[in-house]
Amino acid sequence: MAHDPASGARGVKICGLTEEAGFDACITHGADWVGFVFFDRSPRCVTAAQAHALSARHTGGPARVGLFVHPDDETLARVLEGVSLDILQIYASFERATEVRARFGVPVWLSQPVSARADLPAHCPAGVERLLIEPKPPASATRPGGNAQQLDWGLMKGWMPTFPWMLAGGLNPANVAQAVAITGAPAVDVSSGVESAPGIKSPDAIARFIQNARSVTFSA
Q: Which residue ranges does the record assign to the N-(5'phosphoribosyl) anthranilate isomerase (PRAI) domain (predicted)?
């Protein structure tokens, strides 16, 4: 089930799951979303069969999110044939995101990399359920996200979007509460920040990240 921001609890997504211990920790500690990466340049890349095997360990629970980088329709169709996904998280243009939503009928999240306040989006494209606000990758990066790069949270002070969004980039158990306090993020996304090695999640770090992400409350 997708997280409902109206519930008052901060939404938490654990992305880049590749092994059983990490997936099971997400279930145990109440993550709202679990993410599988379908991008071969990532150390967290999995096949549809691997994602299916992990997802089958627990029925119900967190929504399953598939992450794709500029995917074509053939790639999306092939993965969706192999594993049931509740959300498609993509790196693409606004127009492409809208096309994917119409073509596959699955909710779409769209990455929105930023480096300055002027980059913060004023609206969310029709057909896109949520925007992920994360740092623009360095010029030397080989992938658009998952670089453990931290956004300047201060540039988001006073930014009050009217659409669902999520904060990503460089988050970990030690800094997520501060990030939330500064940005007011209704939901957060982490991958490398809860790992003991690239692609290997730490159950203890997952538990602490979820607890700390939800420790900050805001008055009405």
A: 12-212
